[in-house]
């Protein structure tokens, strides 16, 4: 499953300010059972808007990680809040449909 959220960088800060904290928190989160990696993307034409995607084996794995709060992760996220606003987009199943172009 995918856990997706939008990050809006506040005035006076840059995406790199947030990304440093995001990498530190992600490295800890990725130690949880079922974690399969994270991605952070900049919006084309708007470097202050990012999208973050966390990949998990299942919603149950992600919920289990959230059910056992890690104070170090919470501290990193709280500290990063001065750089940005975060809006949850949602939790999504892995794709049911894929269209993959044929090899050329």
From TrEMBL:
GO molecular function: monooxygenase activity
Swiss-Prot/TrEMBL keywords: Monooxygenase, Oxidoreductase
Positions of the ABM domain: 4-61
InterPro entries named among the record's database cross-references: ABM_dom (IPR007138), Dimeric_a/b-barrel (IPR011008)
SUPFAM superfamilies, per database record: Dimeric alpha+beta barrel
Pfam families, sorted: ABM
Domain of life where this protein originates: Bacteria
Protein name, UniProt field: Antibiotic biosynthesis monooxygenase
């Amino acid at each position: 499953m995918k856990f997706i959220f939008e990050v809006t960088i506040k005035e006076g800060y840059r995406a790199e300010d947030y990304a440093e904290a995001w990498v530190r928190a992600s490295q800890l989160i990725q130690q949880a059972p079922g974690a399969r990696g994270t991605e952070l993307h900049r919006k084309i034409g708007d470097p202050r808007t990012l999208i973050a995607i966390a990949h998990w084996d299942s919603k149950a794995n992600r919920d289990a990680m959230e059910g056992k709060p890690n104070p170090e992760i919470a501290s990193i996220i709280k500290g990063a809040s001065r750089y940005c606003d975060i809006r949850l987009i949602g939790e999504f199943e892995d794709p049911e449909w894929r269209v993959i172009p044929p090899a050329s």
